[in-house]
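Running this now, will post back.
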Amino acid sequence: MRARSQLLVLVAAVLAFAGLAQTQQGHVVLSDVGLYQTPVTYTELAFSDPGQLPGALTKPNGSIKVSFTIHNVSGDSRSYQWSIALAHSGKSQVAAKGSVLSPAQGQTEVTRSVGASCVGGRLQVTVRLTSPAESISFWMTCPPAPKKQAKK
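Update: finished.
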């Protein structure tokens, strides 16, 4: 009978400890003794289909489809401010911007078509997040400048 009482006390203590471990105060105690770590939170920014990114602008003025994914690796939904910038010959301009809400542990895809204009050289397309400060980019070649005809 005494062994049974001791077993019941032990089971009750284990259950009480398990319940305490699920609370904020329990997390603090477990963290202090090295048995709990705060879950890691971060954001991943990537092009949705990198193999399909355009390599060249076919006309001096055209449209570029940009599709990217934001992966929110955290326990809470999060709002992200994003922008798409185009840079050519040392000049950069924001072609599109917006905000999107991504659920906890979720991915959100954003697709925009942006107008681009360039002749000669390369065009850099950059997707940026404000917070956390992250960016990804790719390069495209621009159509060559028209050749000037020699005067007769």
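Strands lie at 42-47, 61-73, 78-88, 91-102, 106-117, 122-129, 134-141. More later if anyone needs it.
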